[in-house]
Amino acid sequence: MALAxxxxxxxxxxxxxxxxxxxxxxxxxxxxxxxxxHSQNKDTFPTKGWVIENGTLRKVAKERGGDLLSEKTxxxxxxxxxxxxxxxxxxxxxxxxxxxxxxxxxxYQMLDDATEAxxxxxxxxxxxxxxxxxxxxxxxxxxxxxxxxxxxxxxxxKGNHVxxxxxxxxxxxYELGSDEVKAGVAKSKFKAVPHFGERVKGHxxxxxxxxxxxxxxxxxxxxxxx
Length: 226
Prior knowledge:
CATH class: Mainly Beta
Number of domains: 1
Helix content: 10-25%
Strand content: 25-35%
Shape: globular
């Protein structure tokens, strides 16, 4: 009975379990307001393009309101969130986003791989990739739920080690500053961005893409020592 209750609690959106609270996890979205988030280059939540409804944060299709940045910054962290996109949708969550670099950061891609050419090859633009730099493992194909259904994702950063997770499976890992990352960055559009591919302290960013995307249960454990 206790186990069943624990599982039910873990599945409830926009909440922290007793174990998460004890460990120091924090909700980045309370399911009711835009507290903790602001538009890029502003200190307020956008007045259009993003809607809070039924315990979710939804990016409105074809209505641009600006990227959403977390108020706090992180250099090492464990970050989890639930998401779903509309058929044909394209979105992403970025990390290591600094004010100096604008909206540029390492991106965990979120894509309708089944219909988008960028996703069908499971390459550097597919879901759970380090966007434009590193492709996910082949097992990611089986882990991804289709457009319109919820997925659970995770980005873990400790020291120079980074992991991307999808629906309970680790689907990518890399080392910041490694030869592999440097080679990927050199072939990408980020090759001229200072310190791209290295660990920096920055915001979490929800992308203001043109397609609909819905988020819930955004939570983070700050592992930073600085």
